[in-house]
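Researcher: Let's walk through a ligand-bound prediction step by step. First, I give you the protein sequence. Second, the SMILES string for zinc ion. Third, you return the three-dimensional complex as structure tokens. Ready?
Model: Ready.
Researcher: Here are steps one and two:
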Amino acid sequence: MEIGKLNKQDEQTLRSGKCPGCGSKHFVEGPSGGGAVNMACENGHRFWYGGPFTPEYQGLIKIEHEGDLLRAYF
Ligand SMILES: [Zn+2]
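Model: Step three, the predicted complex:
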């Protein structure tokens, strides 16, 4: 998965609630604005996700696990 806009297949995977990078279904939400939200999966794949727009992969961020809670460093 390259940084930038997702291809159609990866976009569909993300929209179905699964990380196209690792298949995780566990996401944490980050800062939002302008109808878009930043989100990351439990393994640190960060996405920009905005309604009808093509989501973008933004690279890996640091994630810490505290039991069932995820703390993401956006
Ligand atoms: Zn992932």
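Researcher: And what stands out?
Model: The first strand starts at residue 4 and ends at 5. Residues 19, 21-22, 24, 41, 43, 45 surround zinc ion (CB under 6 Å).
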